[in-house]
Design brief:
It holds the Pfam family DctM. This protein is mainly alpha-helical and 427 residues long. The chain has 20 helices and no strands. The longest helix is centred in the middle third of the chain and has 31 residues.
Length: 427
């Protein structure tokens, strides 16, 4: 057992150091284990990979990715931002408020952080710069607010956590509501404070609109505004499962974009679908190899060994949560979110439950830590997406996002030590 464990760790570290993609590193490490340390025929590896993806809840992921692409291309995200600008764009800090709220609304139907950054950033970064906000502040705010995409339900990482730990995905979605609102409100407060203190948004008065114009903006956006309520309301009322909700989001977005807004042509659907397939394939490949690696860890009883060791330390729940936060904040900087969840959640959750920590609360803490990792160098994905959209360097975006990241750390601390924020809506 010790020999196999040592080889597994060595191979995984070697592959990661050599810059192998995380999915490849997990898959090759698993293959080494199957070939040298088990009697399982190699032909069964493909079966295990297939079975890893043969999951009804996992079907929600490609649907949410497709829905996000349709919304971005079909004018839904633009109408959300236009409505926000019409309501508060004339205020000092109003465009920053619009940006955060638009990210929260888009996150509530896309489940993806990078998709939120792309959809909102493409519209709001130029608009904020045009209206008196520095590019650095605008880009940093979009990168950070976009990270709410993996916390505000429906959330792809919450789906992955539910599958990896056999927790109820609907309960995880319910648990993410209040922390998502908390983080969003804290970002709003920070953005408004900075805008007022530094005089950002002086040209925002150009967005002052008459009541008639505001009403028109509301009418234009009402179908876009209804989508989050349809998706989340359908899940929480029991009308449909998270996977069915994702399919409903695709159908609704397609009908609205194609037949009502008419901003997507039938000829463009192939491009939108192909882009979604590529993204979905990448995510699913990571998940399949992550689940395979989780099986390897379980076969070697590594989670049980780690659990026994930590239990011997006789930690209090709050001490364990501090250690978990430190670990996950570091892991989030260097590892893709789904991979981190698939590897660490099955190891850490049993320990948390032994200490009396609610598993749903723990899942939210895990995702919030990895949310901050999305805006932290060297591998924070949102930094690269925002960099490509604004023309700033990744380091520049990271510096610009630092104040917002500190705000998210504050939200993480509150949710970590006040479980009510995560369990208030869970029956």
């Amino acid at each position: 057992m010790l020999e196999a464990t040592f080889v597994l760790i060595a191979v995984l570290i070697l592959l990661l150091i050599s810059s192998a993609p995380i999915a490849v590193a997990l898959g090759l490490t698993s293959l080494v284990y199957f070939y040298y340390f088990t009697l399982i025929p190699m032909t069964q590896v493909s079966e295990r990979l297939f079975n890893a993806l043969n999951s009804f809840p996992l079907m929600a992921i490609p649907f949410f990715i497709l829905a996000a692409n349709i919304m971005s291309r079909g004018g839904i995200s633009r109408r959300l931002t236009d409505f926000g600008a019409a309501m508060v764009g004339h205020l000092r800090g109003g465009m920053a408020i619009t940006t955060v709220l638009a990210c929260m609304f888009f996150a509530a139907v896309s489940g993806s952080s990078p998709a939120t950054v792309v959809a909102v950033g493409a519209l709001m970064i130029p608009a904020m710069v045009k209206n008196g906000y520095p590019k650095e502040f605008s880009t940093g705010l979009v990168a950070t607010s976009g990270s709410l995409g993996i916390l505000v339900p429906p959330s792809i990482p919450l789906i992955v956590f539910g599958i990896a730990t056999e927790q109820n995905i609907g309960d995880l979605f319910l648990a993410g509501i209040l922390p998502g609102i908390l983080a969003g409100v804290m970002l709003l407060g920070m953005a408004v404070f900075v805008a007022w203190k530094k005089g950002y948004g002086n040209a925002g008065a150009g967005f002052r609109m008459s009541n008639a114009d505001k009403l028109k903006a509301f009418r234009d956006a009402i179908l876009a505004l209804a989508l989050p309520f349809l998706v989340l309301g359908g899940i929480y009322s029991g009308w449909f499962t998270p996977t069915e909700a994702a399919a409903v989001a695709v159908a609704y977005s397609l009908v609205v974009s194609l037949l009502i807004y008419r901003e997507i042509k039938i000829s463009q659907l192939w491009e939108v679908t192909l882009s979604s397939v590529k993204t979905s394939a990448m995510v699913m490949f990571i998940i399949a190899n992550g689940i395979l690696f989780t099986f390897v860890l379980a076969s070697e009883r590594i989670p049980g060994s780690i659990s026994a060791t930590i239990n011997d330390w006789d930690l209090q729940p709050w001490q364990f949560l501090i250690l978990v936060n430190i670990l996950l904040l570091f892991v989030g900087c260097v590892m893709e979110t789904s991979s981190a969840i698939l590897i660490l959640a099955p190891i850490l959750l049993p320990i948390a439950m032994d200490l009396g920590i609610d598993p749903i609360h723990f899942g939210i803490v895990v995702v919030m830590n990895l949310e901050i990792g999305m805006i932290t160098p060297p591998l924070g994905l949102n930094l690269f997406v925002a960099s490509g959209m604004s023309g700033m360097s990744v380091v520049g975006v990271a510096k610009a996002a630092l104040p917002s990241a500190l705000v998210l750390l504050g939200a993480l601390a509150l949710v970590t030590f006040v479980p009510f924020f995560a369990t208030a809506f869970v029956g």
